[in-house]
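[Discussion] Sanity-checking designs against the backbone

I'm trying to build intuition for which residues belong where. Below is a structure token string of 251 positions. I'd appreciate it if someone posts a full sequence so I can compare it with mine line by line.
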């Protein structure tokens, strides 16, 4: 399943907020909400659980952007990117203590947003222990594998794929492909390298050319020579049959 990165916009200048929303939508991101107040942002966080928050530092109301960002980080550990204009030094110093993932100065271009968001994904991946950065597509395209999902640039968009939605991975020369129910993604790393990044509890190598999501198996042949996943029949090498049987706890 293809899931765009979800972003909450917290900006009290609604014309600016609408422009940002249009920019992000054009880049392929999903906007979970636009809110002018910190209090409303916290409510939106609970309801929609975005992957990233764009936060104006100088919000009006009880909570300014800095305090709102601090509460978001404490409660959700969601990355925050600050939007700034003419911020005084004291406010900027306060903002730094909330561990923002980036600062973007107004006015900005779509490319500024795109780079800041992608860098935020890199930092998020690096901060998760045991997570790895994996290159996908061309040299400027990346996939960021976290504990339960992978962020992939696909057809010009950064999208989110939950690992539980992956059916299987297949070797493609020195590359590999991952398959979900409705899409396949070419990744510029070997199947063995991908195997090292995936959780071995959920994924299993069954052939030199295939890694499967064990939970997605629909049927197994009597001789354990093949498994059916979706519309695909995949071979099981003899050397992997015993491990497959043990994993499925066949009696």
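Best answer:
Here's mine. Compare freely.
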């Amino acid at each position: 399943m293809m899931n765009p990165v979800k972003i909450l916009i917290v900006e009290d200048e609604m014309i600016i907020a609408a422009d940002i929303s249009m920019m992000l939508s054009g880049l392929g991101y999903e906007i979970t909400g636009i809110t002018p107040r910190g209090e409303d942002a916290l409510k939106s966080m609970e309801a929609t659980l975005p992957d990233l928050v764009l936060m104006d530092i100088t919000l009006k109301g009880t909570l300014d952007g800095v305090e709102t960002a601090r509460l978001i980080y404490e409660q959700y550990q969601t990355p925050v990117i600050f939007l700034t204009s003419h911020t005084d030094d004291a406010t900027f110093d306060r903002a730094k203590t909330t561990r923002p993932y980036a600062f973007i100065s107004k006015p900005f271009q779509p490319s500024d947003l795109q780079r800041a968001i992608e860098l935020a994904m890199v930092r998020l991946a690096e901060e998760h222990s045991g997570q790895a950065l994996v290159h996908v597509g061309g040299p400027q395209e990346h996939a960021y594998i976290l504990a339960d999902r992978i962020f992939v640039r696909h057809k010009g968009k950064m999208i989110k794929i939950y690992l539980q939605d992956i059916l299987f991975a297949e070797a493609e020369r020195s590359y590999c492909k991952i398959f979900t129910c409705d899409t396949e993604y070419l990744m510029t790393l070997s199947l063995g390298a991908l195997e090292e990044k995936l959780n071995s509890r959920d994924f299993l190598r069954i052939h030199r050319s295939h890694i499967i999501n064990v939970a997605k198996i629909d049927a197994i042949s009597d001789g354990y020579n093949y498994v059916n996943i979706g519309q695909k029949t995949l071979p099981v090498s003899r050397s992997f049959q015993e491990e497959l049987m043990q994993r499925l706890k066949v009696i």
